[in-house]
Design brief:
single chain; alpha+beta; six-stranded mixed sheet
Amino acid sequence: MSFTKIGIIKKDKYSKDLIEFTSSTKNNTTIKSIDNFILKKNGERYSIKFQIKSSEKNKYLLEINSESKKFVEELKGVSEIFIENKNLPILEKDEFYNDELVECNAIDENEIIYGRIIRVIDSSNGSILEIENEEKTFLVPFNESFIINVDIQNKKITIKNIANLAEIWKLILFLHFRD
């Protein structure tokens, strides 16, 4: 079986019975078509069934069914969640699962390669691309302010002003480590 990461979960700070789910996709229809996900814990995979109680953008409050509660009661911090690839909902045009973005080349408007995506970091404010360039890495938010085009088939992501972004990160690292 193969799996795709669809987001992260953590305990809800206001309720012991709910968990917070931050989705890798902002498509409500896609998420609402899912009623379970896979939680990896201590090398084991557990199927967790849930119901969506509320949602705002790509954040959801989930109620876990009673059979699955024992697997999430001990959650500490943030845990990644997955879905079997055969159960992945079809995304709308211009939507992507994070796993699809990993290993794509990060290019500028002139098709010059500035690195490759080595990881997609989920945050409460959205996804962030970690790009490796000459054994150094830099981060770019995955949003319309920076991303011009995503071509999954050809494994390339066109990023606005990527040369400047890479230089800014080099400067930040230099200033940070010179002391």
